[in-house]
Amino acid sequence: MKKEELINTAIHAALEAGKTIMTIYEEADHGIIQKEDRTPLTKADLAAHSLINPLLHATGIPVLSEEGRNIPYSERSKWDTLWMVDPIDGTKEFIKRNGEFTVNIALIQNNEPILGVIFAPVLNMLYVGSVEYGSFRLSSEMSDITWEKVMKFGQKLPLPKAHQTYRVVASRSHLSEETKEFIDSLDTGKQEIELISKGSSLKLCLIAEGTADCYPRVAPTMEWDTAAGHAICKGAVKKVMQYSRKEELIYNKENLLNPLFIAQ
Questions:
Q1: CB 214 within 8 A of CB 167
Q2: CA angle 81, 83, 86 (to 5 degrees)
Q3: Closest by CA position to 135, among listed 251, 234, 210, 263
Q4: What is the CA radius of gyration of the chain?
């Protein structure tokens, strides 16, 4: 399939998953259970996974999803191209009903994210990024969204800088002591440091927008948490670097746990 067709497939899958998620979001019972790693899982996660996977598999490219993660490395190590999916990034935010959760879909090629789609259903905001074409955001209230419409009507990222402070974006649910120490150690000259709290991969979207200047992550994340946002950052000429090394994050590793990182 052509690159544009792959982008359109990812956009369609994210938007359709968002519709399914929202029907469950409004229900009183989210069907919450606890996974082996003690993180929450809802029936919305499973419904979105079941919707997204066949749409992406139709492209002929294998899929690695958070809710279908148990694919042996001996098998996926042979994949030079794959989809990486988090059906709901920010399940805790979904449960809290604060709206700060997303659908994440990324295309990985040779261990690098080359395409990312992030949809925030409650916020009605779609982010699409490609290393080749750049990154954009668009209100999802527009009908029949395609990649062509995203490029024509969306806002190109990064946006013009409108803040005077040095903005550091951090997690609502995972602001660790190490993150606080990192923020305290920042040397920003005469710029005042402003902390922005945000859930899910929206933190990486803020970096791509230029709405925030730095996102230090010194707490655990998985590859599907960051892949789509990383691609969108790359399309906006931003970097997601390993915390202790001058190398970008890579994907489809044997251990799917990310190293600590800084996006800026």
A1: yes
A2: 150
A3: 234
A4: 17
Residues 85 and 145 in one domain: yes
Domain that holds residue 196: 166-263
3, 128 Cβ separation under 8 angstroms? no
**Which region holds residue 210: left if phi is over 0, alpha if psi is between -120 and 50, else beta?**
left
Give the single-character DSSP code of 260: P
CB-based burial label for 249 (10 Å; 0-12, 13-18, 19+): buried
Rounded Cα gap, residues 12 and 47, in angstroms: 15
Q: What is the DSSP letter of 37?
A: T
Task: Give the tokens for residue 230.
Answer: 């990383």
**Cβ pair 9, 59 in contact under 8 A:** yes
Distance of CA 258 to the CA centre of its chain: 13
- Average pLDDT of 208-218? 95
Summarised one tens digit per residue, pLDDT across range 19-69 is 999 999 999 889 888 787 768 899 999 999 999 999 999 999 999 999 888
One-letter amino acid of 72: P
Residue 120's CATH number = 3.30.540.10
